[in-house]
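User: Some background: our group keeps a shared notebook of sequences we're curious about, and every so often someone picks one and asks for a predicted structure to add to the entry. Today it's my turn. The entry only has the sequence so far, pasted here. Could you supply the structure so I can complete it?
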Amino acid sequence: MDLYEAIARRRDTRAEFTGEPVPEEVLWRVLEAAHRAPSVGMSQPWVFVTVRDPDVLATFRDHVATERQVFAGSLSGERAETFARIKVEGIVESGLGVVVGHDPTTAGSQVLGRHAIADTGLYSVCLAIQNLWLAATAEGIGVGWVSFYREEFLRDLVGFPAHVRPVAWLCVGPVADVPEVPDLERLGWRGRAPLGSVLHEERFDG
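Assistant: Of course. Here's the predicted structure to add to the notebook entry:
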């Protein structure tokens, strides 16, 4: 699979996990790809926690279900009906969670390139996640980014110290198939905008 094919095939998978384990050598390659991401000042401000304990997976699933209900309660009409059809996680079904955190202390206090924009470390972590996702896609492994959680809950669940910010819980595992159309588009939540609608020349023209 070449890079452009991996980008086109990448999906946020939810219902497609088979429950089979990820081979250790494949998981290592995927995490190694994440670790090779560019980072501000070569700070490499990411940490990864792999979670397979069924009790922990179930605990996080239940927390996410509660947060899903909170969001659902803010919707009405067509938005509520559409959201009710959307699966937001595959935590237990995947059998493996990769929790990605941002640790701003990995390179000390003087990070080249961070002095004016504090969030460059956080941006670097997102690049690592994208590397992981593309590598997993090339390996035939599904990834689902779960965002229905409270940061303090996830921090406590995986034992992050106070200065490490949870950025993502990624459900990772073999999948039966990869949907041709992303779920949010297929189920009518939102479609992909054309490039021309977000591209400007020289200055933002509104």
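Suggested note for the entry: The chain has one domain: 12-178. The radius of gyration is 18 Å.
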